[in-house]
Specification:
- The protein is mostly helical.
- Helix content is 72%, strand content 0%.
- Helix 1 runs antiparallel to helix 2 and helix 5 runs antiparallel to helix 6.
- The longest helix has 31 residues.
């Protein structure tokens, strides 16, 4: 009510802003760390791509070894971050249906890295059964990523960054599943990793000052 006009109608907010829930087992520090790790994953992926480009077709070079190890590091770190994201979204947004697609992404991501280490030369030099099997794994990985994106799109009232991540996962997963557009799929998938970092940072801001339960 306006103190200068006693006859004025009382002013109230049309929509009450709800405070974010206190999430058991989470703290702002943990989420900020996950956000920075997401950015580190993006950086390591970019460096691995540059190293692979510099190595070219020359096997055994330092650039090739750096690219291989950074690629493995990025994959393992990305799987860990995705698992943590799924746990956070299940508590923060009561999101369901994340377990299976995330589990499939982790499995096929690690499997693709293993096959690349075992069959690297065979995959790059011939169209044999190893190459066909490897691209079959990439197809399944793309479909699992597409599935995850669809599940994320269905989350109600998400952060803007989470909504962006959902559509980037849909686009990247569809491109990855096509096999033909695997290289171009890196662009939306890296964008999805950046959006994931923003999701963690947004969650950290919400939990600022709240102790972990």
């Amino acid at each position: 009510m306006d103190p200068n006009n006693p006859y004025a109608a009382p002013q109230v907010a049309l929509i009450d802003e709800q405070a974010p829930p206190a999430l058991s087992g989470w703290s702002a520090r943990q989420l900020r760390l996950l956000g920075w790790l997401s950015l580190a994953s993006i950086l390591s992926t970019l460096v691995a791509l540059v190293a692979a480009f510099l190595a070219g077709d020359a096997p055994g070079t330092i650039a090739e070894r750096v690219g291989d190890w950074l690629s493995l590091f990025s994959t393992v770190l990305g799987c860990y971050l995705l698992l943590r994201l799924g746990a956070f979204l299940q508590q923060r947004f009561a999101a369901g249906g994340l377990g299976v697609p995330i589990g499939l992404i982790v499995f096929f991501s690690l499997l693709s890295e293993l096959l690349d280490w075992l069959w690297g030369d065979a995959i790059s030099t011939s169209l044999g059964w190893q190459t066909i099997s490897f691209f079959g794994v990439l197809l399944l990985l793309g479909l699992a990523t597409l599935w995850l994106g669809i599940v994320l799109v269905r989350i109600r009232d998400p952060y803007p960054a989470l909504r962006a991540m959902a559509w980037l996962e849909v686009a990247g997963g569809a491109m990855f599943a096509s096999v033909v557009l695997v290289l171009l799929a890196i662009i939306p998938l890296l964008g999805g990793s950046l959006a994931m970092a923003l999701v963690f940072f947004r969650g950290a801001r919400e939990l600022q000052g709240q102790p972990a339960g």
